[in-house]
Amino acid sequence: MPEGHSVHRIARQFALHFVGKPVAVSSPQGRFAEGARMLDGHVMTDARAVGKQMFLEFEHGLWLRVHLGIYGAWDFAGDITADATIASANGRMGQTNQRGTVVGAFEDSLSSIGAPRRTRLRMAEQEKLEAPLESFPPDPVGAVRVRLLTDVTCADLRGPTACDVLGPEEVQAVIDKLGPDPLVDSPKKAEERFTETVLRKPTPIALLLMDQSVVSGIGNVYRAELLFRARLNPHTPGRDVPEELVRALWKDWSKLLKIGVRTGQMLTMDGLRGKAYEAALASRADRHWVYHRTGLPCRVCGTPILMEEIGGRKLYWCPVCQA
């Protein structure tokens, strides 16, 4: 499932290429025909992400809400931009199993995107730059729930968990149920809200970090890595975690989320330079402390990394460093 950094990057693509333009909205699959009719022909006025949810606003006050879930993805085509970090990656940027070699400058995303190119870009849990287009707009491929089309750019949505047309009050009601997002909420208020919530819960911290009503955007990868970086036992009840450590978790999440949005990768190891940094961008094996490293030696103490099921999801941790 895409984690927070991916959804923020998708919202950025819409902000760059759709906001301020009239958009033709259709449902090639047919399952969103009525919703498409309500949005068709209107100018997109805003694109924003909160955690794992994205909201696209149109001039007449209606919003398109999308939650990609496990299987959802956006395919962009036409005159779009693509970060230098995926320009030559033989894999999908942002996913934990990216393959291939990454070259080019690794600047801040908004400045490294360069000139638009007529091509395809798939954005979900991962990002994949595909072959240049031969014609525009491309024919829909597969079960496209929603197609958003301007004169030069196309975005196709497949397989989302949620895809709804909402009014402003309904959008706010959805957002009100979500925990704080470091890229959306006031830093001080967000930290206080997160800290207060965690410290009153008997729930294990590993489950709290995945609860989108506690904090927005954290998924399985960031959860494992944040807990290791904090040297925190994942089974510790939230109310038993020292307050200073809860606050440190929030600050670290804010830091890692910003890195993820900037690079398109869930980079969770600090101090990487030169070839080590390029290797981390290209391969999960060089990118994470504990995630997906079952049985491999801890990078700090050498103890085999454990994997267990908690809340229906896989949890990776070091039983010594996080004792």
TrEMBL record:
Residues 289-323 form the FPG-type domain. It is an enzyme of class 4 (lyase). This is DNA-(apurinic or apyrimidinic site) lyase. It comes from Antiquaquibacter soli. The keyword Cytoplasm does not apply. Pfam families: Fapy_DNA_glyco, H2TH, zf-FPG_IleRS. PANTHER family: ENDONUCLEASE 8 (PTHR42697). Its EC number is 4.2.99.18. Keywords: DNA damage, DNA repair, DNA-binding, Glycosidase, Hydrolase, Lyase, Metal-binding, Multifunctional enzyme, Zinc, Zinc-finger. Belongs to the FPG family. Residues 2-94 form the Formamidopyrimidine-DNA glycosylase catalytic domain. The keyword Hydrolase applies. Its cofactor is Zn(2+). It comes from the Bacteria.
